Amino acid sequence: MEEENPWDFYFDFLYPNKYQIQHMGNRNVVEQLRESGDKLEEPRRVDHWIYFQSTEDKDRFEAKVKLLSFNISSNPSNDEEIYSQIYRHDDVDFHSINEVTDSLIDLAEECNGDYDGWESIVIK
After folding, report:
1. What Gene3D superfamilies does the annotation carry (predicted)?
2. Taking the domain 8-120, which CATH number applies?
3. Distance of CA 68 to CAs 32, 37, 52, 62, Å?
């Protein structure tokens, strides 16, 4: 049996979805924190970056994340990049950070944005 589009099976079943891809990135950051001596027991400031196609999309996103207790870092957009840097105090264990990033991915998509990841300080 010959497949019409040989890549369909790969993209439909084997290729990780947007959440799985982010979870892989989350695992890398969590492991880097652990390797640096962080026990991952204390909530801390976690910064997130989201990129947009328009300032209207960015403004709509920021209004929504404020309702989720996120703070907005001051970041003037320029003609090359329209982005939002947000932060909130959260746990950074693998399960907790996955829940946060999953919700931010969805919210970013609703506002025509792309979630680009997170970072945090090491707490020893």
Report:
1. RraB-like
2. 3.30.70.970
3. 27, 30, 19, 10
Domain ranges of the chain: 8-120
The whole-model pTM stands at: 0.87
- The tokens describing 41, both together, are 């027991």
Q: Which residue has the tokens 């982005």?
A: 83
| pLDDT tens readout for residues 88-107 | 999 999 999 999 999 999 99
**Dihedral angle sign, alpha carbons of residues 16, 17, 19, 25:** positive
> d(Cα 66, Cα 59) in Å, to the nearest integer?
11
Spatial contact of 50 and 83, defined as CB atoms under 8 Å apart: yes
- Residue whose tokens read 């589009």: 5
